[in-house]
What does this fold into?
Amino acid sequence: MFADRARIFVKSGKGGDGHVSFRREKYVPNGGPDGGDGGDGGSVYFVVDEGLNTLVDFRHIRKYAAGNGENGNKKNCRGKNGQDIRIKVPEGTVIREAQSGKIIADMSGDRREFMILKGGLGGNGNQHYATSTMQAPKYAQPGQPARELELLLELKVIADVGLAGFPNVGKSTFLSRVTNARPKIANYHFTTLSPNLGVVDLADAKGFVIADIPGLIEGASEGIGLGHEFLRHIERTRVVIHVVDAAGTEGRDPVEDIYAINQELESYQERLSARAQVIAANKADLLPEDSDALERIRQEFEPQGIKVFPISAVSGQGIKELLYYVNNLLEQLPREPVVFEQEYFPEEEIMYADEPYTVSYDELEQEYVVEGPRIEKMLGYTNLESEKGFVFFQKFLKDTGILDELEAMGIKEGDTVRMYGLSFDYYK
It folds into this structure.
């Protein structure tokens, strides 16, 4: 079965914890701290695999996790980094955050690899916290925690040309004649349940990729029938060929069908109705000599700039002229692929706002103490040695209300604030 959607969980690796230890060697009675840093956790990447064309593998494996970083050790030994994980997807896969539906990455165009979750950084060992006033720090930084996301993967077929049309109008027969694709063909509705891709080779021309996409019915833009499956894939195409049953063998009116299809395109996404269009009036060989069906179609749509070609997908009549026209049309259109912009940024969205913290005063040391998992993790994420990092941390203290609590407790300029072995002088 063709699989064009999947829901999976991904998790980055936790950073290893920094180590607390002290040199204990002969002739070094008062050795300093020598705790090593923790290793970085593995990151989660998505990569395009040219050999894949469905998301079927994700039906069997739904959870993907990178390796955790190892903890630091004594003698300044740094922990080993966790193993990255690379998840292979077909080109055209759109990755969304499951809850919001916002796009994180579109694996199309020039994007062949994307890091969706960065592994947690390893924590510093206690050797980093030795100062002139604290020569034996008993604190090491914990590694940053793992991060996880629930994702929706959605494959949008990448083709130059999409075949649009109601069920059973001959799209699959047309595709099998003009390309090397071999779709299943039968005389009943909804035969095509998945996109069939084929390459059109033309003498003295570049040729193009064409897709026969699941049949469209009225109400498709609202999700009725196979509508969303059709419309999802046609978003990538640059030209739409409307295949209609010009002979009306099932009692349908081809003019009404074309208007119905265009209405569904516009209802789903306004820019789809603006795609360049060509009409393939199929089954023209079945029209009686006195029929005015082709003339009706031409009079209705050619004044709108939509070229009409009478064809027979069975006999091949008129198909060559249609293909060369479409090829020339593609040459005139911009070749930039449709790539969906990022709307969700995991590094900014994944926060730890609900975790608690405490603010207290240490009478013995005469210091204000701020503690809690939230503070510990923020210290792990922030490079306080850089000006930008320090400003970011100050903003965090203000936004969370910690500075207000300190002021309510009577803190004055020059007083000391301690956070997990780090001491700061308070200034407004």
In short: The two ends are 64 Å apart (CA to CA). Residues 43 and 119 are 4 Å apart (CA to CA). The mean pLDDT is 79.
